[in-house]
């Protein structure tokens, strides 16, 4: 039996949608409770019911923000799903490097970056296989809704369980230093990533034109109208020959006809369709 009433769950869903545009389905009750339980303990509250009472009576933005952050921070891991990173290494980065004038900087955006594993994976891949890019010729921007999770990402400190998920032992030894029971990513990799606060569903921060955009395993949380709005904004910042990576269960089909699927090996990514030249 749920620790929260249907009324409580509806209140939480409405709060989440209002603050982040994320739509939580009815089957997400377990997620809500498992994410809020640690927050209740952290706040010194005895139960989820006490947390709900506090939430309904304390209408401060900060308190609501903490609840939203606790629920909307999404799971991530180093080199998640593997195939996109292989495609990046073998096909896309060599292609973009060959296309761009010598010395021109490549710009990569990792949206909804959570605790930083995705942008750091990109940085490690570049450092390993394209060392000439790793300095001034590359800019990696990583954004997330949550200030707390961004602080964690900047710190670059991960548990043994987190580094065991997807990170080869050779890369762990090369790019991390052990600190007690945790592992800190080396400063040479941390310096390659710029972390910024940003909400995909609202006004975006000022962003440069992007060669690569990662918005993986995020669109699934939004309603159709919000998905369409996000993809429309992606069109405005993705270069005409740039690539968009979505999660394996996500697609632009039926959402935005400006994108065409591009299968590369075991990876499906997306590019903007060439603009039609009007006939006279």
TrEMBL record:
One Pfam family linked to the record: CheR
Keyword S-adenosyl-L-methionine tagged: yes
One GO biological process term: methylation
InterPro entries: Bact_Chemotaxis_MeTrfase, CheR_C, CheR_MeTrfase, CheR_N, CheR_N_sf, SAM-dependent_MTases_sf
EC number, as in UniProt: 2.1.1.80
Reaction catalysed by this enzyme: L-glutamyl-[protein] + S-adenosyl-L-methionine = [protein]-L-glutamate 5-O-methyl ester + S-adenosyl-L-homocysteine
Keyword line: Methyltransferase, S-adenosyl-L-methionine, Transferase
SMART domains: MeTrc (SM00138)
GO molecular function, one term: protein-glutamate O-methyltransferase activity
Regions annotated as coiled coil: none
Enzyme class, first EC level, given as a word: transferase
Domain CheR-type methyltransferase: 1-251
Protein name as annotated: protein-glutamate O-methyltransferase
Source organism per UniProt: Candidatus Contendobacter odensis Run_B_J11
Species lineage: Bacteria, Pseudomonadati, Pseudomonadota, Gammaproteobacteria, Candidatus Competibacteraceae
């Amino acid at each position: 039996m749920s620790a929260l009433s249907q009324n409580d769950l509806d209140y939480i869903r409405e709060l989440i949608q209002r603050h982040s545009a994320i739509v939580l389905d009815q089957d997400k009750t377990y997620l809500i409770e498992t994410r809020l339980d640690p927050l209740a303990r952290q706040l010194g509250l005895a139960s989820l019911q006490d947390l709900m009472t506090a939430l309904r009576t304390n209408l401060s933005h900060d308190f609501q923000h903490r609840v939203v952050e606790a629920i909307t921070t999404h799971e991530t891991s180093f080199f998640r799903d593997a195939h996109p990173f292989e495609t990046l290494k073998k096909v896309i980065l060599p292609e973009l490097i060959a296309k761009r004038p010598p010395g021109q900087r490549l710009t990569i955006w990792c949206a909804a970056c959570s605790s930083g594993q995705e942008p750091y994976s990109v940085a490690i891949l570049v450092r390993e296989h394209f060392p000439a890019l790793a300095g001034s010729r590359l800019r990696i921007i990583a954004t997330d809704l949550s200030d707390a999770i961004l602080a964690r990402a900047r710190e670059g400190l991960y548990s043994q369980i987190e580094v065991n998920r997807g990170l080869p032992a050779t890369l762990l030894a090369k790019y991390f230093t052990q600190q007690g029971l945790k592992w800190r990513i080396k400063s040479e990799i941390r310096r390659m990533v710029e972390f910024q606060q940003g909400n995909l569903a609202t006004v975006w921060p000022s962003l440069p034109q992007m060669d690569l955009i990662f918005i993986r395993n995020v669109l699934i949380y939004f309603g159709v109208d919000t998905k369409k709005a996000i993809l429309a904004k992606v069109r405005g910042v993705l270069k005409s020959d740039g690539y968009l990576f979505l999660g394996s269960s996500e697609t632009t089909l039926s959402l935005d006809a400006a994108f065409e699927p591009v299968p590369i090996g075991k990876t499906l990514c997306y590019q903007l369709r060439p603009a039609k030249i009007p006939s006279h």
